[in-house]
TrEMBL record:
Family: Belongs to the HpcH/HpaI aldolase family.
Record keywords, A-Z: Lyase, Magnesium, Metal-binding
Example GO molecular function: lyase activity
Protein name, entry field: HpcH/HpaI aldolase/citrate lyase family protein
Cofactor(s) for this UniProt protein: Mg(2+)
Pfam families per UniProt: HpcH_HpaI
Annotated ranges, domain HpcH/HpaI aldolase/citrate lyase: 52-279
Taxonomy, superkingdom: Bacteria
Presence of keyword Lyase: yes
Length: 340
């Protein structure tokens, strides 16, 4: 009698700091992760239409879902996964589960994988503090996927929203080949760092730089970006691990200009997308995270002027060489991806 074969795990957690092979999978356009509260019937009813307008729909089970609606939200997420054909519009289906030490996480993850594991692309894990959190989720997903015959591995997207997570961001990015990316959670991160703000992302009127005194007029000052360091460090961690970096939520739904500027700063620093919390943020994300047509034209001229990517040429008075060829390729490749 042959011994029963143990279930095959998709991935084994990697030791901290071990080199990680880059993941080989098609890259999707994910300019906006549109958050949906799945316990609300009215909102759920709009999901099939919404799925045609956005790159990713996320069923949110964590913050913003009241404790007494957690079960209903989980059931709503399952209903979405079972009834909406996300693949038909090439829309990603993600869920943000409750944090690992909450009373809801285990039921969130077991229910999602067992009920809609084949529809679920990515599970977003909040308040990740170190690679150990990712290892735990990785193994749990591997067990559940094996048990429920899930056809492809479910990705992990971590939210960077604690000071401890920030300290370990490079190791988090490398913690598993299952890592899809990392996004910024500016509200929780601000609280964890004891930043003195009640805002969700964006600038602050008191965070400024003032010029030196000038004779005869009032000194000018300008707001600075309190998220610059955080986003730049997150982008470095993600880029060096070959995963996506994303901006998170922008809480002032009524300030579309400030939202656009925050998204644009993130895009310029290397982010691929952001969350949309309200339908009016969808078009902003679509515009900002698609490359500017004039930039694409200029980038295409650089690639044409240097067919083998080496040497030096002048275009409109600007020097181009191997490095600017690579910059141009990033923009042209993204334009192609968005156009497909
Ligand atoms: C998002 O979860 C945040 O805390 O900003
Ligand atoms: Mg948060």
């Amino acid at each position: 009698m042959s011994a029963t074969k143990p279930p095959q795990l998709f991935y084994k957690p990697l030791a901290i700091g071990a080199p990680m092979p880059l993941r080989e999978q098609p890259v999707n356009v994910e300019r906006m992760i549109h958050f949906v509260p799945p316990h609300l019937d009215k909102v759920r009813a709009k999901v099939p239409d919404m799925a045609k307008k956005v790159d990713v729909i996320l069923a949110n089970l964590e913050d913003a879902i009241p404790a007494d609606a957690k079960d209903a939200a989980r059931a709503g997420a399952v209903e979405m996964g079972k009834t909406v054909d996300f693949k038909a519009s090439n829309t990603g289906f993600w869920s943000r589960v409750n944090c690992l030490n909450s009373p809801w996480f285990l039921e969130d993850i077991t229910t999602l994988v067992s009920e809609v594991g084949n529809a679920l692309d990515v599970v977003m894990i909040p308040k990740v503090e170190g690679p150990w959190d990712i290892h735990f989720v990785d193994q749990l997903l591997a067990q559940l996927e094996a048990k429920h015959n899930i056809e492809k591995p479910i990705g992990i997207h971590a939210i960077l929203e604690t000071a401890e997570g920030m300290k370990n961001v490079e190791q988090i990015a490398l913690a598993s080949p299952r890592m899809h990316g990392i996004c910024l959670g500016p509200a929780d991160l601000a609280a964890s760092r004891k930043m003195k703000t009640t805002r969700v992302g964006g600038g602050h009127p008191f965070y400024r730089v003032i010029e030196d005194p000038v004779e005869g007029r009032e000194r000018m000052s300008a707001q600075q970006d309190p998220w610059h360091y955080t986003i730049a460090r997150m982008v470095d961690a993600c880029s060096s691990a070959g995963i996506k970096a994303m901006y998170g939520p922008f809480g002032d739904i009524s300030d579309l200009d400030a939202c656009e500027q925050q998204f644009r700063n993130a895009f310029l620093l290397g982010c691929d997308g952001a969350w949309s919390l309200h339908p009016n943020q969808i078009d902003i994300a679509k515009k900002v995270f698609s490359p500017d047509p004039d930039e694409v034209k200029f980038a295409a001229r650089i690639l044409e002027a240097m067919p083998d990517g080496t040497g030096v040429v002048m275009l409109d008075g600007k020097m181009q060489d191997d490095a600017t060829w690579k910059q141009a390729k990033v923009i042209v490749d993204l334009a192609k991806l968005v156009a497909d």
